[in-house]
Amino acid sequence: MSTITVVGGGYVGLITAACFARLGHRVHVVEIDTRKMESLKAGHLPIREPGLPEIWEQGAASGLLSVTGSYKEAISTSEFVFLAVGTPPRANGSADLRQVVAAVRAVIGAAGGEMPVIVVKSTVPPGTTELVRDVVLEHRPYDDARVVSNPEFLREGLAVIDFMRPSRVVVGCDDRETAESVGALYEKLRRPVIYTSTRSAEMIKYASNAFLCTKVSFMNEIASLCEEIGVDVVDVSKALGMDPRIGSSYLDAGLGWGGSCLPKDIAGLAWTANRVGVQTPILNSAIKINARQGWLVVSRLKEMIGDLRGKTIGVLGLAFKPNCDDIRESPSLRLIQALIAEGCEVRAYDPMAMEAAAHNYPEIMYCTDAYGAAVGVDALVLATAWPQFQSLDLHKVRSLMRRPLLMDARNAFDVNAVTEAGLVYAGIGRPMAGPEFEQPQRELAQHLRGTRGRPRSTAAKGQHAA
Ligand code: NAD
């Protein structure tokens, strides 16, 4: 058993702390925000994450897990300090490392005779762990400056599972003994540990997030093409994903990626590359494609129901992805802002994220359930693919709506079920469906034969939907 301090009681800090306690380590969480810290001490978790309340309670009850605002109290007994503070993006895309540096200085100030190993768990640009070492060396002798990069790959909504069953643990350190002491903290998980340099570990994290972004944006580009030539992108991605060289995750066309990590990490990598004079056309395109997805939905809606001014749109889902209440950089909220800018009224519902959204977006009309979001709307948009939306009674949904248009911006609904309920179905990169949509297939055929211009079939169809 080791004694660990986790600095930062946010998403990563809380999961790291609770899971390390579950593995039998003694863990102190230091949180600088007094209100958050007091609330954590009282057992209230600020995030909703499956499995976390149970292991948090167990850890607290066993005495292995504690929360404090005092660095001294935590650091004096700790062999390892994990930094899990925020690294938000600056306006130019670079990572703001002020929380990291402030946390390191606080650790140095609190450390007595022996300096703990400092482990950077926050996502940071390559070279940051070396910067952390330099900060330590301003105050301590060389042997005290043991710093490690140990990036976190958890996904919100699956965070506990991801921490306890990681595909790999990455430990970056230029000193093997220190690296192995950190690797040993994860021993009970029996998962592969990749030992590498600090810079490589930092790069692995940035590159993996940038790759996930690129996969989704690639699929969104393919979706745009599918839409024009009458192909269903869902069939394409399903078959692509069955190829083990490609893999099936992050292949869903839709509104795109969001959250507190992917947008800032791909921007951070592009900024890092730019700083060292390396061009990143792939990263730049992935970012550009992602930014356009919400506007594509807006323009599809315009094609189908005309000018959006004065229209009411229902939106299902506000969180940046299902199974969490995190609305940071949520594609759904980006879309809603675009709709409001067009003059729409927006009714919305999310199983978990209503409170967070209501706090920041008072202009949205929040509904008590998904059916409420369908009342009197000109179109209903699925923006976050919560599984429970798929089991909605679509006949009831149809009966509540003013116009029968379901815009499935996550390609999650069963098309037949939607059309059988009397709704017109529009997805991302999929042929529209509904009884009125036989005509456009003919238009497409004429187009391919060269006897017609490009088939804006969806526009023609959409007008029937009104
Ligand atoms: P967060 O904003 O939820 O939490 C950070 C916490 O650190 C806050 O509670 C803040 O008050 C606290 N804090 C800041 N400075 C402090 C200090 N000096 N001392 C004590 N506490 C301090 O952030 P997060 O989502 O947990 O992310 C943390 C890092 O992990 C980021 O670099 C992020 O990119 C990375 N990461 C996040 C995820 C994710 O899914 N959220 C996944 C992998 C990696």
Question: What does it look like?
Answer:
The protein is of the alpha/beta class and 466 residues long. Helix content is 44%, strand content 12%. The strands form 3 sheets. A 6-stranded parallel sheet has the order 3-2-1-4-5-6, sandwiched between helices. Helix 1 crosses helix 3. The chain is elongated, with a radius of gyration of 25 Å. The termini are far apart. 48% of the residues are buried. It binds nicotinamide-adenine-dinucleotide. The site of nicotinamide-adenine-dinucleotide has 27 residues, from helix 1 and helix 5.
What key attributes describe this structure?
466 residues, alpha/beta, binds nicotinamide-adenine-dinucleotide
Small-molecule binders here are: nicotinamide-adenine-dinucleotide
Strand order of the largest sheet: 3-2-1-4-5-6
Number of helices: 18
The poorly predicted ranges are 438-442, 451-466
For the largest beta-sheet, the strand count, sense and barrel status come to:
6 strands, parallel
What integer value in Å does the Rg equal?
A: 25 Å
Form type = elongated
Number of strands: 14
Alpha-beta content class: alpha/beta
**In percent terms, what proportion of residues is strand?**
5-15%
Chain-averaged pLDDT:
92
- In helices, the fraction of residues equals 40-55%
**Ends distance:** 65 Å
